[in-house]
Amino acid sequence: MVIIVIDNSWKRTLLHPEFKKTARRRSALSDIAEMMATVKVNDIEIDYELRGQGFFLVMIMGFAGNMQWWPPALVETLANHYRLLLFDNRGTGKTTSNGWCYSIQLMAKDTLGLMDALGIQQAHILGVSMGGMIAQEIALNDPERVRQLVLGFTACGFWSGATMSPNLVNLWLDYSTRAEVRKRRFLTNLFFHELF
After folding, report:
1. Model-level pTM?
2. pLDDT, tens digit, 9 for 90 and up, residues 23-57
3. CA 44 to CA 3: how far, in whole Å?
4. Higher pLDDT, 93 or 154
């Protein structure tokens, strides 16, 4: 797993006792202001959700995934501290497509267009897998739009990119323990990786 954080201040938030106490509480998502809608961006209609309160955190899912793929416990926890923008990439979920010719650059433009349509000038950007590649494209071309960049399970290039360590591959594939234990272990490694 590769996680790159341009600004490490997010770790102080996750380590803060108040954050840990809130994360343990199983608040109902209905308590969090939510909005689901569709907006025209470039040549497509993007389906998105807004949840939570605070500074914006744009969450970009990977290849063929939609916003429903984010783990509910992760969404719930982050929504207690950030205003989340979750959306379906071009051609996934309920977002339309204009054909089959997609590129990382095009999907980065879609993401920035969605941010523009919602009046978001700057946000934390979280991308996983292909979503991490989209997030990197945004950071490279419009760095002023990115307050913090968090990348997981991604690469900066297919042939020259860093690969996931064998230990994390085994963790990802470990089906011998209960689902709750796997989820906790996965999230711990995602946010508290040895690189930090």
Report:
1. 0.68
2. 333 333 333 446 889 999 999 999 999 999 999 99
3. 30
4. 93
Which tokens sit at 4?
A: 């790159």
Residue 187 burial (C-beta neighbours within 10 Å; 0-12, 13-18, 19+): middle
Amino acid at 3: I
Tell the burial category of 172 from Cβ atoms under 10 Å away from its Cβ (0-12, 13-18, 19+): middle
Side chain identity, residue 17: P
Maximum C-alpha span of the chain = 48
pLDDT digits (tens, 9 = 90+) for 122-150: 999 999 999 999 999 999 999 999 999 99
Angstrom distance (rounded) from CA 122 to CA 170: 36
Query: What residues have CB less than 8 Å from 35, skipping those under 6 apart?
Result: 49, 50
Residue by residue, DSSP assigns the chain as ----BS-THHHHHHHSHHHHHHHHS---GGGS-EEEEEEEETTEEEEEEEEESSSEEEEE--TT--GGGS-HHHHHHHHTTSEEEEEPPTTSTT---SSS---HHHHHHHHHHHHHHTT---EEEEEETHHHHHHHHHHHH-GGGEEEEEEES--S-TTTS----HHHHHHHH--SS-HHHHHHHHHHHHHS-TT-
- The token duo for 76 is 């719930």
What are the C-alpha distances in Å from 99 to residues 75, 103, 115, 196?
30, 12, 23, 41
